[in-house]
Structure formats: structure tokens, C-alpha cells
Input
Amino acid sequence: LRIASLPPRVWLGEGAFQYCTSLREVLIPEEVTEIEKDAFLGCTGLVILCKENSPAHLHAQENGIPYRLQV
Output
């Protein structure tokens, strides 16, 4: 799995993509309001695509995950 695009109204539980080292990009819509702390633990090389000030944006910032803001 290299790229994932999540549907709205889903939540990411702890370890959802844990150690998925092939994952490079994940598009997280702003309707995704809950992302557990270790959802992306060990995902080296991952970039989260998200809206500014969305839960995904805040999660990326709080957990040191690179992100790219979408318009």
C-alpha cells in the first residue's frame, strides 16, 4: 500500500497503519475527526495530505508527521 485516500466519517484507531513502511501518502478529509495517537507509528516516509486546521493537520503537527496542506 503506497497511497491511501480515506472516506469521510471514518476514524483511525490506534495502530491503523502501524509500521506500513510502504505507505507514502494518505489523504485525510476534514470530516475524519478522530485519529488515535499511534495510527501511523513507524510509517517512515509518510506525508499526510490534509486541510489546514483539520484534525489530520493537528495530528500531523502533534506527532511530527510531515504533511502537505490541500486547498
Q: What stands out?
A: The mean pLDDT is 94.
